[in-house]
Amino acid sequence: MIRAEGSNGTLSFDGHTVTIERSGFRAKWLVGGGDKSIPIDMVAAVEWKDAGFVVGYIKLSIGGGSERRRKSGKAMDPAYDENTVTFKRGMQPAFEAIRDVMRQAVEARVASPPTPPLLPPPAVAEPAAPGGVPSIADELAKLAGLRDQGVITQQEFDQAKARLLGG
């Protein structure tokens, strides 16, 4: 596990989960107390600002999340952002190390996304009713098979069933 203690919280990464711990009056007042754990698979980007005259920060952008902004449309002050840990110049080397490891994990995931699960084989078609026209029962059985395989939703199944039954 790699860990860095900052001005408004502590950031740690175990290879799978990023944890932001908030303790102390200042951190609780600015961001709120408690810990936050984020699976690395949810991290879309690791933003970085070097510590200058004031502070630097490391910010985690969460996939599907909405970044908090001021009414003016500008990004919120990092000290108040729940996914950001600020640090002073002397703390920066520890944060650079954790930044590099997290970026490698995010880039590795993006470079080789997980393969989607394989769909089960399609159902074997039932023989048609005499005269070459499938019966309503045959059609319902096919639809149920597609629903059970996840190819169509329950709602799509119900709509098709109603059409077949004349409803």
What tags apply to this protein structure?
167 residues; alpha+beta; four-stranded antiparallel beta sheet
Query: How many strands, which pairing sense, and closed or not: the largest β-sheet?
Result: 4 strands, antiparallel
Distance N terminus to C terminus? 61 Å
Structural class computed from helices and strand pairing: alpha+beta
- Residue windows where pLDDT falls under 50 for at least 5 positions: 69-74
Helix-strand topology string: EEEHEEEEHHH
The portion of residues assigned to helices is 25-40%
Morphology call: elongated
* Number of helices, counting only DSSP H or I runs of 4 residues or more: 4
What is the number of beta strands? 7
Mean pLDDT: 79
* Beta-strand proportion: 15-25%
Query: Strand order of the main beta sheet, please?
Result: 1-2-3-4
Q: What would you report as the Rg, rounded to the nearest angstrom?
A: 26 Å
